[in-house]
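Methods — Computational structure assignment.
A single polypeptide chain was analysed. Its primary sequence is given first, followed by the predicted tertiary structure written as structure tokens.
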Amino acid sequence: MVCTLCSCYPWPTLGLPPRWYKEPAYRSRAVREPRLLLAEMGTVVPDDVEVRVWDSSAEVRYLVLPQRPEGTKGFSEEELARLVTRDSMIGVERART
């Protein structure tokens, strides 16, 4: 997800956004070359995984739900919450395993 508004960033839930998240260079690269940008940030997306970029607007907001890590089927809500980071909630890394 790419937000060009910054007003939809969930500050109460995730705290202050990282500085780079608001920079035009990050936003434009996230739209133009998301797979390369993610790889540079340490998140390699396999070639067989489709990457779609969605932009929030004043009318439409999106929420990133990190993919559930394998082997966590019986985890409690608290255990799952410990695997989620700010960066996994903004779509630049996977949830911890």
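Note: The first helix runs from residue 11 to 14.
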